[in-house]
Specification:
Length: about 190
């Protein structure tokens, strides 16, 4: 069976095509205590050559953790080594819609990028959020990457002060939230 691009986007929105099977030899699992510095270093290295990076993503992860706001924190493990990480944290929306979360930062160790680890982290994370009863997820990032998972522009939902084409949402139900979105304070507190 073949899928067109629009079939795939529709399936992604409904969660139907999600197949969070990681690449061979990669285990996706929750972060364990004691892995903070490995995750921080991995994140720092992954973003080092990203021209759009603010280079504080590792501090954001730590600030979220300290604030108890890492709702979902998954690592990708290969032969006992952490090679990827993804964070999800609660967000606020001015219409008071409950149960929305922000995806990110997500990072894969540079030598293993492009092999499906990021996809596995994103799909596992979204599946876990759904399992927690979340209503939706937002991300600020590359639409070319996140459209693949069903994220899209929802013009009624916005993040102030940024180019809106990079701000994407994935409602888990039929209706999106509307209004101004605010990320967890850890995003602005991180140095
Ligand atoms: C972004 C990142 C997490 C993706 O992880 P990855 O393991 O390299 O990605 P995958 O191999 O799982 O690719 C997942 C899908 O996204 C696509 N993709 C990956 N990176 C992409 C990019 N920068 N732009 C557009 N599409 C991208 C892949 O082609 C793949 O699509 P497909 O499954 O439909 O073929 C990783 O490259 C990374 O750590 N980059 C540096 C940090 C960063 O930029 N984080 C995201 C900030 S928005």
């Amino acid at each position: 069976m073949t899928y067109s691009r629009s079939d795939r986007a529709g399936a992604a929105r409904s969660g139907a095509h999600m197949n969070p099977r990681p690449p061979l030899g990669i285990l996706i699992r929750p972060e364990y205590g004691g892995e903070e510095s490995a995750i921080g270093e991995l994140t720092r290295l992954a973003f080092a050559s990203n021209p759009r990076s603010t280079h504080n993503e590792h501090s954001i992860v730590q600030a979220l953790r300290s604030a108890n706001a890492l709702t979902v924190s998954l690592v990708a493990e290969q032969t006992k080594r952490i090679v990827g990480h993804i964070a999800f944290s609660p967000v606020r929306i001015s219409d008071r819609s409950p149960g929305w979360y922000g995806l990110g930062p997500v990072a894969v160790t540079p030598p293993l990028q492009g092999q499906g680890i990021g996809r596995a982290l994103i799909e596992h994370g979204l599946q876990q959020l759904r399992g927690l009863g979340a209503q939706g997820c937002v991300v600020f990032g590359n639409p070319g990457l996140y459209n693949r998972f069903g994220f899209a522009r929802h013009p009624g939902l916005y993040l102030a002060g940024v180019p809106q084409e990079f701000f994407l949402a994935l409602p888990f139900g039929a209706k999106s939230a509307e209004g101004e979105l605010t990320y967890h304070a850890a995003f602005s507190a991180a140095g």
